[in-house]
Amino acid sequence: MSAIPSRPSPDHHPSTRGYPPPLCTTVLRFNLVDPAPTPEGLAARYRAALEMAAFADDRGLTMVQTEEHHATTNGWMPAPLVFAGAVFGATRRIGVTVSALITPLHDPLRLAEDIAALDLLSGGRLVTVAGLGYRPEEYAAHGKDWRRRGALQDEVLRTLLAAWTGEPFDYRGRTVQVTPRPYTRPHPPLLIGGGSRPAARRAARFGLPFFPGDRLPELERYYHEQRAEFGTEGWVLQPPERTCLLHISEDPHRSWAEYGGHLLHEARMYASWQSAGIRSAVRSTAGDAAALRAEGVYRIVTPEACVKLAQEAGAQGTLILHPLCGGMPVDEGWRSLHLFAERVLPELRG
Questions:
Q1: Which residues, 6 or more positions from 237, have their beta carbon under 8 angstroms from its beta carbon?
Q2: Are 196 and 5 in contact (CB under 8 A)?
Q3: What are the two backbone dihedrals, phi and then psi, of residue 106, each rounded to the nearest 5 degrees?
Q4: What letter would DSSP give residue 7?
Q5: What is the DSSP letter of 193?
Q6: pLDDT of 271-281, one tens digit each?
Q7: Are 155 and 108 in contact (CB under 8 A)?
């Protein structure tokens, strides 16, 4: 989980209602977590997420964001590309960012085909952030060697870039060709995620954009130094100085009392996966709901306060709505989203 990159060409697909763009990037985040998952409950949450994505698309929000995790106890999104395809089928304009996809867990050729198909299906609305992941148990669950994750990542990236040319290429000692070619030229948007020098160096070596998990100016400088050495092109998308995940409420105090446990569930589980050296813009150290509220990573704000956050951030800012956070009741998620659409978005367009 990280801050969310925007689609490189947000005006490529016009809004279905011709809304002017809002002041800043607007993101709808889903990971479909449920602390006590059941098949019926998760099915309802998946349906609600698709309906919310269609609602957001109709009102001109910028992006849906999701991610990939495995071997969890709470249903944390394991199949983000499947989810992205469902979102594209329910929408016409909005982009989908997968940040991050744990690319070494995937078969390289199959992944090239799947992303190409999604790029064609969506007309170029998919943004993929390729990450290594940080949980050895996810590699074990998929029969992958954690110690070889760097080599696995290199193979996946080489394969994706070669496959998306549409030309024959050598793959594990045989000649293969992946068709059809993607919609986007030269290839679907692909960024390298991470918060380490090896990640920055890998992005520079492949000539791909770099997306740090936290605001790390020193790593940006290192990336450009490495680009100069490799003779590649590229850019860095830094998260804002402060990233927060938002829920909109007319009475934040009441909402914290009723729903703060849902936000805390997600925050504590995510923090439990992180080693000391991992940097993330949305990592929390809170041990209870009061500390989480004071910390400011997860925020419940009024519509007016949300408008103020957007105005302070300006055109380069991002508002990340998390309506179903940590198993939030679906009805409460809809209340948050309606408040945003009816009382925040008009102000951002004014």
A1: 5, 191, 209, 210, 211
A2: no
A3: -105, 150
A4: P
A5: E
A6: 999 876 676 77
A7: yes
